[in-house]
Amino acid sequence: MGKTNYDMIHTIPMLDLAETRWVQVRDGDPGALVLFNRHYSKKFYKDGRVPTRFVGPGERLVLRTADGLALFVWRKFLDDSGQIGVNCAAFRNEGPELSSTLIREAEQWAWSTWPGVRLYTYVNPSKIQSNNPGYCFKVAGWRVCGTTKINQLTILEKHHSDNMNTRGNLNQRLK
């Protein structure tokens, strides 16, 4: 059976997931939980409870690097802000790898799980040290698409079709 026009237009060369630095783990993985507990979005319960899971409801994909120095959490859910797509709920890199490289590889995992879907994330400019909120995402080809009404979080997004442009530019820089 041949490829349809849709397949030819929407097929983008992807990394072999086995060649990425990421390994899929479960929500509550002890190594991932340690990293998440240091993420600025970590919420603490007033009653002192210490949860063992951290992603929240909806579909999820939790990635941790094999060396345990980075965490990436994708989440697909009904977002109260009205955003549509798959949300990067947490990203933390404490290792030597470039964050933009880890983001690009995590995108491949997301698009392998939810083909063609829009990816988005929120960055809280008041909680990070950079004067360029979301810089590592921007280097990975993401763009600012707005700000939330509550908390004034910066919204960044990347569409599957943007990956063609980013991959092309990346390949040009590597030559």
What does this molecule look like?
The protein has 175 residues and is α+β, with helices and mostly antiparallel strands. It has one domain (5-174): 3-Layer(aba) Sandwich (Aminopeptidase), CATH 3.40.630.30. 26% of the residues lie in helices and 23% in strands. It contains five helices and seven strands; from the N terminus they run H-E-H-E-E-E-H-E-H-E-E-H. Strands 1-2-3-4-5-7-6 form a seven-stranded mixed sheet, sandwiched between helices. Strand 6 (143-147) and strand 7 form a beta hairpin. The radius of gyration is 17 Å and the shape is globular.
N-to-C order of helices and strands: HEHEEEHEHEEH
Shape: globular
What is the number of helical segments per DSSP (H or I, 4+ residues)? 5
When the domains are counted, the total is 1
User: Under the CATH scheme, which class?
Assistant: Alpha Beta
Report how far apart the termini are.
36 Å
- The fraction of residues assigned to DSSP E strands is 15-25%
- The CATH architecture is 3-Layer(aba) Sandwich
Kindly report the CATH topology. Answer: Aminopeptidase
Low-confidence stretches: 1-13, 166-175
The count of β-strands is 7
Strand order of the largest sheet: 1-2-3-4-5-7-6
Outline of the structure:
The chain has 175 residues and is α+β, with helices and mostly antiparallel strands. It is 26% helix and 23% strand.
